Amino acid sequence: MKTIFSGIQPSGTLTLGNYLGALKHFVDLQNDYNCYFCVVDEHAITVPQDRLQLRENIRSLAALYIASGIDVSKSTLFIQSEVPEHTQLGWMLQCVSYIGELERMTQFKDKSQGGKEGVTSGLLTYPPLMAADILLYKTDIVPVGEDQKQHLELTRNLAQRFNNKYNDIFTVPEVSIPKVGARIMSLQEPTNKMSKSDANQKAFISMLDDEKKILKKVKSAVTDSEGVVKYDKENKPGVANLLTIYSICSGISVEDLEEKYQNTGYGVFKEDVAQAVIATLKPIQERYDQLIQSDELDDMLDQGANHASFQANKMLKKAKKAMGLGRVR
Ligand code: ATP
Ligand code: MG
């Protein structure tokens, strides 16, 4: 059975983009693959975080994985900082990475736009930690949204470089990007991707938003003045994004939706988009409410960390041996 690894940062409440682009696919994958799902809290601290908020986000993210359908009897769900092998291998891979290639990462460029003085070095060296996350578990496939493609390419390069330079121990992973939903866009600036860490709350739908909020956010989503419901990503990015969201949430094809709304304005269309989103998120929210304060969740996460650590340690030992760290025992 092939192995899948995927991580999500607890940098805010998950968005509909995270769900449609990532989580939703994970649920199907866990039947056919050996899956590792990780709350990558050490990635989240590359940018400033409030201590209590971070703790809350970590737990909330773990509960959302389960509420969305991740089954811990099939998959390993754990918190990155509870498995110290990640930072250990992350450091070793930093020593295999070049500053130049890290500086070329578009996410680093985007998130450090305010100038390099106020940006942590962790933001620059985050990709080797991500590579460690993946390589520790002999991962074959990494299912991600389009935004992570470049980091995945770097992971592959680092694995190959390590294998050539030291010893051939790492599996070089493949990236898998969903055909639809890989890039859900911001509701306010539909040419940017929807992000949970966006400062503008109106730009994203959180997986925990209530009905009223969802309706309000969809209604105030930026579209255009044409009034025609048509999928045209170039010229009508806002409408195209709503069509994508509606289509995935309802299971109705974009073409059928275009036909259904050809004579209505955006008002009716948006109302229905919102209802489809509400129907998708409601059962998840109900399960989430049962889980969030439960001991059951802690038990699941303990079990996940134990299993992950056991596996990760085996690979870490190999990597240390390959690099000549520590003693011969
Ligand atoms: P942040 O703004 O903190 O980076 P994020 O919303 O980009 O948050 P990540 O934790 O970086 O979320 O990514 C989690 C997963 O969700 C990844 O697999 C990523 O590819 C996917 N993803 C993130 N944003 C989108 C989006 N807008 N559409 C589809 N998939 C997405
Ligand atoms: Mg991101």
From TrEMBL:
Coiled coil: none annotated. Its EC number is 6.1.1.2. L-tryptophan binds at residue 133. CDD domains: TrpRS_core (cd00806). ATP binds at residues 9-11, 17-18, 145-147, 184, 193-197. PROSITE patterns: AA_TRNA_LIGASE_I. A motif ('HIGH' region) lies at residues 10-18. SUPFAM superfamilies: Nucleotidylyl transferase (SSF52374). The keyword Glycoprotein does not apply. Gene3D superfamilies: HUPs (3.40.50.620), Tyrosyl-Transfer RNA Synthetase (1.10.240.10). A motif ('KMSKS' region) lies at residues 193-197. Keywords: Aminoacyl-tRNA synthetase, ATP-binding, Cytoplasm, Ligase, Nucleotide-binding, Protein biosynthesis. It is found in: Cytoplasm. GO terms for molecular function: tryptophan-tRNA ligase activity. Homodimer. Catalyzes the attachment of tryptophan to tRNA(Trp). Belongs to the class-I aminoacyl-tRNA synthetase family. This is Tryptophan--tRNA ligase. The gene is trpS.
